[in-house]
Amino acid sequence: NTPKPVWNPEIVQPINFYEGWARVPDQEQYDNAFKIQWELFLKHVAKNEPFPWDLKEGAKGVHLAEKGLESWKKRRWVDVPEL
Questions:
Q1: Of 19, 22, 62, 75, which sees the most CB atoms within 10 A?
Q2: Whether pLDDT at 13 is above 90
Q3: DSSP structure class, residue 75
């Protein structure tokens, strides 16, 4: 249950809010995503290995980033049309 404190400057806070806290375990360390994709691309070029993303996928990523900036500037939701 969430404690429901009442602020009263005349008394000491009876609820110890730290008691209900739990430690969050350390997260797994992730490598740089740009580096990983760049390595995949270089393997594609040098070893003719398959590459999962084409120019259209890159354009979709740029389009989404632009819509994110537009949404931030307008301070509202914006539609993301299909490319």
A1: 62
A2: no
A3: T
